[in-house]
Amino acid sequence: MDRSTDGATSDAAGAATALSIGSATRIIEGAWAKYALAVTIFAASRIVILIAVSLSSALLPLNLHATDWNDGSGIFHYLLRWDSGWYLEIMRGGYRYLPDTLAKQNVAFFPLYPLVSWCVANAFGIAYSTAALVVANLCAAASVLLLYKYARDKYGTKIAFYAVAILSFFPASLFLSAGYAESLALMLTLAAFLELERGRHLKAAIWCGLLTAARPTGVVMLLPIAWCAWPRERWTRSSLARLMATLGIAGSGLAAYMVYLGFTFHAPLAFMTSQAGWTHGAHCSLLTGVYSFKYFAELFRMIPVPYALDPWIFASFAVVIFAARSRLSTPELLFAAASFAFLIATCLCSGRGFLTMSRELLTVFPAYLAGATLLANRPRSLFALHLCMAVGLFWYSTLFAQWYWVD
């Protein structure tokens, strides 16, 4: 081969390499642009919240009957209400527990969120209240990115964007940015599902272990992990050992918290028994939940408080997931079913009715996927849904900031 042919071959190889690098760069840039768009959708919903809390004092007087404490006067501190105070108490003074009392106690709140916030506060020298909001909002942004990636890989880009939008403007998504553990729990749930989708059961179990230390509802993640890790061929000692080890890791967060409560207060189930402080006087009956549906008319009396919507939101989540059941995967359906069963057992059967139901449903992400698939070819319905949810998000945030409502 002469030098001219050799040079031509070299030039062709160089051009092909440059072309492939250019194509890869464009793909990466396009992917990052789509991630940025997903975050932008979420940021737009956060602007609705900021406008609401900024105007809340002009729209509503402060509800002095419900105000137990206040932490700062800045605009962001309007997002530190209700349960945020319990998390701040844990950060500042740790857990306390008195047996045989009906008083509300902070052991009812799981440790991962206040622990992470405490670490951030001390690492960066910022106030605990600021750290709580930083952690919540960073986890919320991470949740949006994880939901987008999970939905895009399984259902396509359009469904992914629709799911992100439904999550972002869902009125109870206020709690993704408030001083609550919901954003951390949602992030860990989606991280576990991503690993399950890749067949990495051990990594999914690790994320689930952290999840069970963040929220009591995290235990429902054990069911899809068990389904995916279950031996599909024949049982052997090694397959059984892998399954048991996977489930042990998946429940390790809850187990660790129980061990801590046992050693510290001699009450490993204190997080359950302390719930009596919130449910004292309630009657254990499913009829409590059924009767809750009749209070819809109260939404329009005096200051409309959205607790009357909670039963209907619960029913809507169930109907949407059922309608899209053929489009969802088995682990997603198992997660949703286990979540509903857990909420029925712990909320409806405990006599609390649908109180806190919208917030509890926030982490049931298959509902966002189901809604996105059902409305993918109905742009007008999708727009109307988001418009209604944006109004609801604004009103929920206004009520929350002025101590009129918590879910």
Short account of what is shown:
The chain is an all-alpha fold and 407 residues long. The chain is built from 19 helices and no strands.
List descriptors.
407 residues; 67% helix; 0% strand; globular
Structural features, described:
The protein has 407 residues and is an all-alpha fold. It has one domain. The chain contains 19 helices and no strands. α2 packs across α3 and α9 packs antiparallel against α10 (237-250).
Largest sheet: none
- End-to-end gap: 78 Å
Strand content: under 5%
> What is the CA-atom radius of gyration, in angstroms?
24 Å
The geometry reads as globular
* Succession of helices and strands: HHHHHHHHHHHHHHHHHHH
By DSSP, the count of extended strands is: 0
Proportion of helical residues = 55-70%
| Individual helix count | 19
Class by alpha and beta content: mainly alpha
